[in-house]
Amino acid sequence: MVDVVLVLVILVPLVLGILQIALVLFVRNTAAAAASEGARYAATADRDGTDGVRRTRELLRGVVASRFAEQVSFRRVLVDGAPAAEIVVHLSIPALGLGGPAFTTDVVGHAVEEAP
Questions:
Q1: Model's pTM, two decimal places?
Q2: Which residues belong to any copy of the TadE-like domain (predicted)?
């Protein structure tokens, strides 16, 4: 009985830490892909920034909980002198997705705009 308790004291935090890292990386990579796709969508000749933001939110909503992505914003930028669309997703990922202290980060997607 004592051996089980001593092993669990080490293994439970280790497993929970691995799960937290996996959740953070999954949500971050998914948001980066959604931001890039939203920027490409906004950069097409017949679309604007609100279309890109909407597309990014749809993609995030389809894979992860929408509460992870607090804010999605669009702006026009220059990438190596060329006009481009930029989508920024601000993420807040709570511990194991349940609540408590959250890990926050921003992911950015860029795409060079099409010429009309």
A1: 0.85
A2: 2-40
Mapping DSSP to helix (H, G, I), strand (E, B) and coil, where does residue 111 land? strand
Helix (H/G/I), strand (E/B), else coil: 110: strand
Burial class (CB in 10 A: 0-12, 13-18, 19+), 87: buried
- Predicted pLDDT at 57: 92
Domain range summary for the chain, segments of one domain joined by +: 2-112
**Residue 85, by phi and psi: left (phi above 0), alpha (psi -120 to 50) or beta?**
beta
